[in-house]
Amino acid sequence: MVKCIVEINSSTVGSTGRIMFMIAETARKHGFTVYTCSAVHGNEKRIESKNHIYIGSKLDKKIHLLLAKKTGYNGCFSHFTTAQFLKKIDKLQPDLIHFHNLHNCYINLPMLFDYVKKKNIPVVWTLHDCWAYTGHCPYYDFVHCNKWMTGCYDCPQTAKYPYSDVDRSKEMFEKKKQWFTGANITLVPPSEWLGNEVKKSFLAEYPVRVINNGIDLDTFRPIQSDFRKKYQIENKFIILGVASSWAPRKGLDVFVKLAEDLPEEYQIVIVGIDEREKNKLPETIISITRTNNQKELAEIYSVADVFVNPTREENFPTTNIEALACGTGVITYRTGGSPEIIDQETGVVVEKDNYDELKQAIFKVKKDGTFSKEKCRNRSMKYSRDERYKEYVELFESILEGR
């Protein structure tokens, strides 16, 4: 009998969207029927497929976002939208539901968790960040906060995503604890770091299975291009930074400082910059707006001499893997699961916010030619999408057999 899986994520794009679809594709190859579900966003290309279900509308989401911002209660609205969605799910009679990102105000969380508890549907929940066990934030390293271990209050990040005008971290911590516990859930953090953090939280009652993120190694591979010629930087040492959005935690300020300090033979290239940020950057930095063209991105990774990831809080960044897959070594701060991706032959780990150590690592890579393209590519094989996401299939099968 064919088993049915429903996957739910806040978006169809970005790393979490790609991961959801890659897992769905892998599960289908192994005989599962899989439906993907997401919120509706104005800037995303609509997916016309009977196997994709949209949750609500753009207006529903805007109303939820506004109410959550004014009240501080994130995920407490969209009652009608969620009721409609759960009716659709009920007709599918899923054997297992796979959660990804549930934040960003598109679904009513108490209704969703009440549904899986009453139906006793097993859930796999991939934790793409830390939001599931905090009273507000997706990450807390940047502000050095450990309140989530015992109970959130006086949140230092109320005005940060998910945006709120009032501090409801204490109330939301208690609500999440009530909603998210007592169900049949297996947690899947992509990094050992997050796996260890979860075990210190109120989600510690659940089994944890670490499954690393994977990428498409056919797309991300060494590719020849005219990038150097196009930007007239044929003889420069290229330092690359890539992010889907350059929040302060991602370390854009580090690249600005490097642009001021490094000699002329170095060239910084930043991908993922929006127009507002672009106008504030030094003219010496080559800034490229966000691209969903993965072939173009692979060409840029391939031409770089080193990929620098000065992120200050992180889970398991696929950008590190993409760089390795294109033959480019990585320098990263010791943050979250970022150091887990590389080894001594393919990267350098620098203590977080130690700018001088980071700069010296760049100098050393240029001087010694530390990383071979072949070793970087070989290291990336560990994160093949086929191998990593097959682990999800094995997990689904083992849970359903146990049931």
Describe this structure in words.
With 403 residues, the protein is α/β, with parallel strands linked by helices. It folds into 2 domains: 4-214 and 385-402, Rossmann fold, CATH 3.40.50.2000; 227-383, 3-Layer(aba) Sandwich (Rossmann fold). The chain is 37% helix and 15% strand. It has 14 helices and 12 strands. The strands form 2 sheets. The chain has a 6-stranded parallel sheet, sandwiched between helices. Strand 4 (96-99), helix 4 and strand 5 (123-126) form a beta-alpha-beta unit. Helix 1 (14-29) packs across helix 14 and helix 11 crosses helix 13 (373-380). The longest helix is centred in the C-terminal third of the chain and has 18 residues, at 385-402. It is globular and about 65 Å long. The model has no long low-confidence stretch (mean pLDDT 95). It comes from Mediterraneibacter faecis. Pfam families: Glyco_transf_4, Glycos_transf_1. Residues 21-218 form the Glycosyltransferase subfamily 4-like N-terminal domain.
